[in-house]
């Protein structure tokens, strides 16, 4: 039986997660039925992140265990709306059931990776907050938000290339922007606050993973996740194709930004984004 959609776009958390028409208008129009796509799951994991926190690497390591799900960014609103409008599925439940089938390991553990905007489908579907305490939430972030902001700024510069098919262009010193890096710092803090508020408001079962700790000891990080989820792990393969992208230019920009901030207001040197 199909359920009315009228109530779903009114959830305050959905509005906090995004204000564009895609989330607040087109996404809530997708029909819902009364079946639970996660009924067959023994565990449900959601990796919540912001850009440049190492989650692509983390997901690869989790997949290699064979027991921590097969996480990928499967809740992205753009993908869901496009597939629905192309007729690839009939309702939200159908889409989520396909996601469960594709991203669960043989022991029934389902895992997804989601930027904080992409949590909106779970609220629209009613899974959050109704069943949020059944989920294991892994919140991945960085202690040094300035380094994260610089990495995001460099990523955005590459996204401005003429074509996605082109190779990554060289980032030069003249690409530095105090304003853009400062904007990314504000965005990071705002998004972290929304996620932390969601976790505390609904009493979600969550753990924090820091990029810096994972970089130093990835095997320890994966074992901590296994303990948190309640899954026994065997040997862990930490070999990876991913490389740390921070370079000398990143360090130059970091020192330049710190110097500019302190020149503007010495009190800023006490803030946490200096890591």
The total of beta strands comes to 6
Radius of gyration: 20 Å
Instruction: Assign the structural class, choosing from mainly alpha, mainly beta, alpha/beta, alpha+beta, or little secondary structure.
Output: alpha/beta
Would you give the CATH topology? Answer: Rossmann fold
Mean pLDDT comes to 86
What is the CATH class? Alpha Beta
Fraction of residues in helix: 40-55%
Percent of residues in β-strands: 5-15%
| Spatial order of the strands forming the largest sheet | 4-3-5-6
Distance between the termini: 52 Å
Dominant shape: globular
Helix run count: 12
H-E string: EHHEEHHHEHHEHHEHHH
Structure report:
The chain has 275 residues and is of the alpha/beta class. The protein has one domain: 3-Layer(aba) Sandwich (Rossmann fold), CATH 3.40.50. It is built from 12 helices and 6 strands. Strands 4-3-5-6 form a 4-stranded parallel β-sheet, with helices on both faces. Helix 8 crosses helix 9 and helix 8 crosses helix 12. The protein is globular, with a radius of gyration of 20 Å. About 4% of the residues have low confidence.
Layout of strands and helices, then pairs:
Elements: E1 2-3, H1 12-17, H2 21-26, E2 32-33, E3 43-49, H3 55-65, H4 77-85, H5 92-102, E4 109-115, H6 120-125, H7 127-130, E5 135-141, H8 145-159, H9 178-202, E6 205-210, H10 211-216, H11 218-229, H12 248-264
Parallel strand pairs: 3-4, 3-5, 5-6
Antiparallel strand pairs: 1-2
Helix pairs in contact: 8-9, 8-12
